[in-house]
TrEMBL record:
The lineage of its organism: Bacteria, Bacillati, Actinomycetota, Actinomycetes, Micrococcales. This is PfkB domain protein. InterPro entries: PfkB_dom, Ribokinase-like, Tagatose/fructose_Pkinase. Keywords: ATP-binding, Kinase, Nucleotide-binding, Transferase. One of its GO terms (molecular function) is ATP binding. One of its GO terms (cellular component) is cytosol. Residues 25-292 form the Carbohydrate kinase PfkB domain. The keyword Nucleotide-binding applies. The keyword RNA-binding does not apply. Belongs to the carbohydrate kinase PfkB family.
Length: 311
């Protein structure tokens, strides 16, 4: 594993959000309030930065809450390419019971045609200067068409840029028709999106193989506590991590995506890149804080990941 490489990543982040969490850890019973930048794209970006990548985030950071999210993201050593409009989502969670209870959600400002054009061109130009572009989806209904992800994957692949996409539904279907380097998707999303008839290994493998026939070089299927599947045109592997007790299951998939993208950016073989991603995801669930981890621990843990060819 090439530990010294510091690849440049561009992360498309259509809906960054501000997360406000109320905890009950403070002595005397008073609540603790934590404020973090969040959303799929920022969680991917944070983990990639922890693994030594130089990360540029493209996304809307409008309004006062968007500006605060941007400030916090920059304190996490992320470089931003903000668009002029949209963004500003906030999620407030009460975690004092041990579970995350959402008590207030402010959706982001929807993206109009001009904002979408700005987001696309910003991501395209930025990604052309990167080793890998990571495409992440949306939690909120922003009016982002699936075609935006497909066009970006197509244009970047045409310029020889690696694309790692973590998408579901119509967005995944659009990218599955293009020459992306890796499409990562969960077993649940494959079934719910109509790609696979059920969540058996055979059905998931068949769905991934059909996707590859459309363009992607590889499909990675995360399967919660079960071994991850890595499917290419030539082979299928299972990727298994040592068992880890879960503290917080959120963010495991985003950390896996970050690890895969960093591995691809380092020039690792796909099984090694997915092993790095699996290690990042597994260790993320063993700690509090989404998209967090230490590079030395993740790379050490990755050496204990088992990769086996599936007949």
């Amino acid at each position: 594993m090439n530990r010294e490489s510091s690849p440049a990543l561009c992360v498309l982040t259509p809906d960054p959000l501000l997360t406000v969490e109320i905890e009950g850890d403070r002595a005397g019973g008073a609540p603790e309030i934590h404020v973090h930048p969040g959303g799929q794209g920022l969680w991917v970006a944070k983990m990639a930065e922890s693994l030594g990548a130089r990360v540029v985030v493209c996304g809307p950071f409008g309004g006062e809450t968007g500006e605060l999210t941007a400030h916090l993201a920059r304190t996490d050593n992320l470089e931003l390419r903000p668009t002029a409009h949209g963004g500003g989502a906030v999620v407030v969670q009460d975690r004092r019971s041990g579970e995350a209870e959402e008590i207030a959600v402010m959706p982001p400002e929807p993206l109009d045609r001009h904002a979408l054009d700005d987001l696309y061109s910003m991501a395209l130009v930025t990604a052309l200067d990167a080793d890998v572009c990571v495409l992440t989806g949306t939690q909120f209904d922003l009016g982002v068409p699936a075609d935006l992800f497909g066009r970006l994957a197509r244009d970047l692949a045409a310029s020889g840029r690696a694309v790692v996409a973590d998408l579901s539904g119509d967005a995944a279907r659009a990218v599955a028709q293009e020459a992306a380097t890796v499409l990562k998707i969960s077993h649940e999303e494959l079934v719910e999106g109509g790609f696979a008839k059920d969540d058996s290994v055979g059905a998931l493998r068949a769905a991934a193989t059909e996707m590859i026939d459309g363009g992607p070089g590889a499909v990675v299927v995360s399967r919660a506590d079960e071994p991850t599947l890595l499917v290419t045109a030539d082979a299928t592997w299972t990727v298994t991590t040592p068992p880890v007790t879960t503290v917080d299951h959120r963010g495991a998939g985003d950390s896996m995506t970050a690890g895969i993208a960093v591995g691809v950016g380092r020039g690792l073989e796909l099984p090694d890149a997915v092993s790095l991603g699996a290690a990042a995801g597994a260790l993320n669930v063993a700690r509090h804080g989404l998209g967090t981890g230490r590079r030395d621990q993740i790379e050490s843990f990755a050496r204990r990941v088992t990769v086996e060819t599936l007949d």
